[in-house]
Design goal:
The complex is a heterodimer.
Chain A: E1 2-5, H1 9-17, E2 21-23, H2 29-34, E3 43-46, E4 56-58, E5 62-66, H3 71-75, H4 78-83, H5 85-91, H6 97-102, H7 105-111, H8 119-124, E6 128-133, E7 136-141, H9 142-145, E8 146-148, E9 151-152, E10 159-166, E11 172-179, E12 190-198, E13 204-212, E14 219-220, H10 232-246, H11 257-279, H12 288-291
Parallel strand pairs in A: 1-3, 2-3
Antiparallel strand pairs in A: 4-5, 5-10, 6-7, 6-10, 8-9, 11-12, 12-13, 13-14
Helix pairs in contact in A: 10-11
Chain B: E1 4-11, E2 14-21, H1 26-34, E3 52-55, E4 58-61, E5 74-76, H2 78-81, H3 89-96, H4 106-119, H5 125-131, H6 143-155
Parallel strand pairs in B: 1-5
Antiparallel strand pairs in B: 1-2, 3-4, 3-5
Helix pairs in contact in B: 3-6
Classes of the chains: A alpha+beta, B alpha+beta.
Chain lengths: 305, 156
């Protein structure tokens, strides 16, 4: 049994090479251990004090998000809210203020839950995840990283260090929505992210959609080339149909498979519409669930109604 | 190899040298080894917020945070909110507004509310609802708790 606190990335990579598992905030790891999902590893290296892994940095081709950047930092980061809005929409829905303070983007990515609220945004935004080990570093797309519920293609000695998001181009926008029964400490019933680029005439030039909690991993909707050239309303209807058709949901205590299949289509259509409004220059505040009244309201007279 | 760690926790400005198992959560060490029982165990599942403490000024569910990770950080519990000469304004106002019934959620509510007011001194009701959204109360219906936070903010 061992517990060490790494102060540098090199310290952390050395510990991983020696068999330790990383812990950042611990919000998935510690809760999961008590649920019997997986016992806490016997060798832990705390990585939460490695300053070089925290923060949002604009690059020549987009933005680099340090793996230890918290959901709370991302939901309030002006650059992310403005240009990679879907990710901010997702981060702002995670847990509670305490969860968003402790939880990190790297931890969320490596936990590989198909219900994660940052996952669909990362897929439609073209995220690449940087994995580092003493053997070197490599970039993998989010889609190639996630192989199943709680499973990734990363080796045991690899640490997620950076999430890279490419520039989205002019007249582009993105959005993430989820169906929820309550407004805090909730896990998505289903969710959908969309990224849309508009042509000069206002039709869709490019669109992508990814879905939350309807498959063993975050699901990228395929065949959306047909949306190119469509007016936004028609593209939203087509995305809605494609999402419901391609979803492979399960039934569990939160929802039946039929309900999830229907609802994820609704979310996909609305995500396309919201992403297109943002692409056209409209400012819709983060998170979209609150600003458009989707999901649970505080009360019958709540602000979200 | 032993799974015990000799660590020092700084809680409410006082340093406590403790010997704890590596996997112990901060909540149980605060209540048992440190001996401060204001922080409550509710769900023990990161859902209810009864265990809320501040770590370096930020709210944290102490049931789901390893004690070992708090080394070198400043932990503040509900006891640490109190000035030496009486109640914290949030404590006084939650009493005056009737925001306490069974009282089990109250320490966590106070800790979350103090973190909210530190970063947002003039919150809207919506800000308060979001700030307290990780704290469940099964008695009050929240309205009086929100009123207490608003009254504290208005007092500056």
């Amino acid at each position: 049994m061992s517990f060490t606190i790494a102060s540098t990335l090199d310290d952390a990579l050395a510990a991983l090479a020696a068999g330790a598992r990383p812990i950042a905030g611990g919000s998935d790891l510690v809760v999961g251990a008590r649920h019997g999902k997986a016992p806490l590893p016997g060798q832990l290296v705390a990585i939460d004090r490695i300053a070089e892994l925290r923060g949002v940095c604009a690059t020549d081709s987009g933005v680099a998000i340090g793996a230890l950047t918290s959901h709370g930092e991302l939901e309030s980061n002006a650059l992310i809210c403005d240009r990679w809005s879907a990710l901010a929409d997702g981060c702002a829905l995670v847990g509670s203020p305490a969860t968003r303070h402790v939880g990190t983007i790297g931890g969320n990515v490596m936990n590989a839950s198909p219900a994660m609220d940052t996952g669909a945004p990362l897929v439609v935004l073209g995220a690449e995840v940087e994995l580092r080990s003493q053997r070197g570093s490599r970039h993998v797309t989010a889609a190639d990283l996630w192989t199943g519920p709680g499973r990734t293609s990363a080796a045991a000695d690899e640490l997620c260090t950076v999430v890279h998001l490419p520039d989205q181009g002019a007249r582009s926008g993105s959005a993430y929505l989820r169906l929820e029964y309550r407004r805090a400490m909730e896990i998505a019933i289903v969710g959908a992210a969309a990224s849309v680029s508009l042509a000069d005439d206002g039709t869709v030039a490019c669109a992508s959609v990814a879905l939350t909690a309807v498959a063993p991993t975050i699901l990228a909707v395929t065949g959306l080339d047909t949306l190119v050239g469509m007016p936004v309303a028609a593209a939203a209807a087509a995305a809605r149909a494609a999402a419901s058709e391609q979803a492979r949901p399960i039934s569990d205590l939160r929802a039946s498979d039929d309900y999830r299949r229907h609802a994820v289509g609704v979310m996909a259509g609305r995500a396309i519409e919201a992403a297109a409004r943002r692409a056209a220059g409209e400012s819709i505040p983060v998170p979209l669930n609150r600003s458009t009244g989707i999901g649970a309201a505080w009360s019958s007279t709540g602000a979200a109604s | 190899m032993s799974d015990r760690l000799d660590i020092t926790l700084r809680v409410n400005g006082t340093e406590y040298p403790v010997s704890v198992e590596m996997h112990r959560n901060l909540l149980s060490v605060i209540r048992t080894e440190v001996g401060l029982t204001g922080t409550k165990e509710g769900c023990d599942d990161c859902e209810c917020g009864a265990c809320m403490v501040l770590v370096d000024g930020q709210p944290v569910n102490s049931c789901s945070y390893l004690a070992a990770q708090a080394q070198g950080r400043e932990v503040t519990t509900v006891e640490g909110l109190m000035p030496t000469d009486g109640l914290h304004p949030l404590q006084r106002n939650i009493l005056d507004e009737g925001g306490v019934q069974c009282g089990y959620c109250t320490p966590g509510m106070l800790v979350s509310a103090s973190a909210l007011l530190a970063r947002c001194p003039s919150p809207t009701d919506e800000d308060i609802r979001i700030g307290l959204s990780g704290n469940l109360c099964r008695c009050t219906g929240y309205a009086k708790i929100i009123a207490a936070v608003q009254r504290t903010a208005a007092e500056g």
